Amino acid sequence: EALGPQEYTGIKMEVAQWSDAAKAEIEGKVGGRKVFLVAATLRPETMYGQTNCFVSPTLKYGVFAVNEKEAFLCTSRAARNMAFQGTFSTRGQVHELLEIDGSKLVGTKIHAPLAVNPEVYVLPMETVLATKGTGVVTSVPSDSPDDYATLMDLRKKAEYYKIDPSWAAIDPVPVISTPTYGDMTAPALVKKLKINSPKDAKPLAEAKEIAYKEGFYNGTMLVGEFKGEPVQEAKTKVRESMIAQNLAIAYAE
Ligand code: A2H
Known about the structure:
The protein is α+β, with helices and mostly antiparallel strands. It has one domain (7-252): Valyl/Leucyl/Isoleucyl-tRNA synthetase, editing domain (Isoleucyl-tRNA Synthetase, domain 2, Alpha-Beta Complex). 28% of the residues lie in helices and 25% in strands. It contains 7 helices and 12 strands. The chain has helices at residues 20-26, 76-84, 102-105, 145-156, 185-192, 201-218, 231-244, and strands spanning 7-17, 34-41, 52-55, 60-65, 70-74, 96-101, 109-111, 119-124, 136-139, 176-177, 220-221, 248-252. Strands 1, 2, 3, 4, 5, 6, 7, 8, 9 and 12 form a 10-stranded mixed β-sheet that branches. Bound molecules: ligand A2H. Ligand A2H is lined by residues 6, 40-43, 46, 128-129, 132-133, 135, 137-140, 143-144, 147, 208, 212.
């Protein structure tokens, strides 16, 4: 575990269309604000390859006022951290507009900033931790073994997970090329380590470690503003560019 604070990028994914279940709960409660799901990521340079977004189907989320125009959807734990980091106009204070079950968010259509596929859906991920980040995880299956394993499992068992197969239909997008694994690092590692399910925790942790190091030290950007540049350089540039464009926030814990 990291000793110092972890510096995440909070990706602002604006709601384009609520699921029916969420719509019924949100109606009339956000005061005309735009609502964003805020996903905490350590790999902002991969955002071109978002294919969906994950929430925990067993966690509670809140919608929190940022100011008169915007609201963020995340865990209340994350909202408290944001309040003390100056994210909200009411510094130090959390203004919760409503609470909602993660399960009801599934099927919501959102806008994924920078993504090659800008419209994506919210899907369930059982391994989302309540104690980390915002409880919202944007999914980049080309470069995250967890995201890839979960997406494949959702496709295999759409009925069991009660999802419409069309919500999980976007394929991984090549974003970063690495010398050892090509332009689909996570799928290559999931295959190599014979990972069959998002519950294969041990090999997934190993795959995650390898993918992270390989991408960071040896990866080259295949798309976007910093195409052709090493990931080591593009990482901070994409983060800063997204924050400057109001597509993301700095979030630490
Ligand atoms: B990363 P660390 Cl492409 N529960 O973003 C489970 N996982 C969570 C989470 C939570 N509450 N909050 C964030 N995460 C994920 C992109 C990515 C990530 C890629 C590759 C690897 C990777 C797209 N998903 O993470 O324990 C988020 O997924 C592996 C390092 O704080 C976040 O970054 O190190 C990462 O885990 C944070 O994990």
